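Archive maintenance. Older records in this collection stored only the sequence; we are now back-filling the structure field for every entry so that each record is complete. The fields below show one back-filled record exactly as it appears after the update. Entries are processed alphabetically, and CooT family nickel-binding protein is next in the queue.

ARCHIVE ENTRY
Title: CooT family nickel-binding protein
Organism field: Photobacterium chitinilyticum
Length field: 66
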Amino acid sequence: MCNVKVTLVSNGTKEIIENVTQIDFDLMEIVVTTFFEPARVLHGFKPVVVDFLEGTVVLEEQLIEE
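Back-filled structure field:
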């Protein structure tokens, strides 16, 4: 079984979410579901890399312009 990891990049920091089973993309949010934790609902992130061979997804926080 392939284990997918999601890396969240925000303000120069990285957070890794492991054991990802599903990622749902919507216009307003991204929902990351894992085996062992509750689903994470992310607002203001965009996908920048999806690497199927490595099993990694990178989501980057978008800067909000005022």
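Update note: The first strand starts at residue 4 and ends at 10. The CA atoms of residues 24 and 66 lie 27 Å apart.
Entry marked complete.
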